[in-house]
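note to self — DONT lose this again. spent like an hour looking for the file last time. sequence + predicted structure for the chain T wanted, 380 res
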Amino acid sequence: MARRAVVVLLSVLSLLSFAAIKIGFFAPLTGPAAADGASALHGAQLAVEYINSRGGVLGQPVELVWYDDNFKADQAVNIAYKLVQQDKVAVVVSGSYSGMTRAAAGIYQQLKVPMISAYAVHPEIVATGEYIFRVGTLATVQGRAGAHLAVKKLGAKKIAILTIDNDFGVSLTACFKEEAARLGAEIVFEQKYPLGETDFRPLLTRIKAVKPDAIYATGYFSEAARLVTQARQMGIFVPIIGQEGYDSPQFAKLAEAGAANGVVITTDLNRDSEKPIVKWFIEEYAKRYNLDADMVGASAFDAVMVAAKAIQIAGTYDPAKIRDALASIKAGDVELEDFVTGFRGFTEKRESLRTITCQIYLGNRFHWFWEIKDPAIVTP
């Protein structure tokens, strides 16, 4: 054991003698999405430590150069110029939301530096151009998967929809609604609500009157916690179906009196996976940050891992060659090693191919509930 520790120490010390390969990163570390931003940064930093403890990339250490976008699109754009022109990063990982990632994508495309979206879902992000990739789940896929979860797994025939009014919510709902109708379900109620909504009772009163079999509600953990709490307080006990925006330890902390129990979500992190890297990530994340790991952190971890893998394939930190290397990581049937979220590679459209995990909240955390592998559903 002592000899192994010495070898690892010598490896780390030898890396320190080389200049680092810079990977850019931005996330909302302040503002209304600060908790998710912190998770994303934690996941990215953990990936850098994982990579450097195993020899780095091309014999050099990896350095994460990160900035706070403050949940603002214009700030994300400013950061894009700074990361490329000032910091000279080789590749960038977005640990931010759809609005910020979508705004910054055009700059990275223009400056020809590859950007990997960790978890932002909006279709227009990757459609920006050939330098933009995504390891998270495209909104089209996640919305479609949510419809199958509601109709095929939970048997809902009448569904109410609540949509957070931003890129994230609108893009998910559009795909859910289309697929649910195709599967034969009836949308009996539909309404948007603003980011930061605190009182869902007027909407829930109207939903209760139409007696749906299930509620599909897009949103982030804070809105989701208030929604499920108020729904249960009003005697609405039909299944509430969410998505990765709920996937945060903050969701259960904010939901009152066990209201989170029974909520089902589509997400990219299977906490019950037997895969060694998943177990390591969950345990290490909790030990390091004294928090439960979530989808945001796991997706940022994988985004940094795929950036490092591309640098290794390219054999250089030239951005154009890293872009080509990213495109060469083709989608396949098998999960790639050293990835936490079930990432199987990129499609020709630079989208991620993966199994969709459905998790149910029971007791004190999310658990495996269902898995969707059908290529007709999960292929972007």
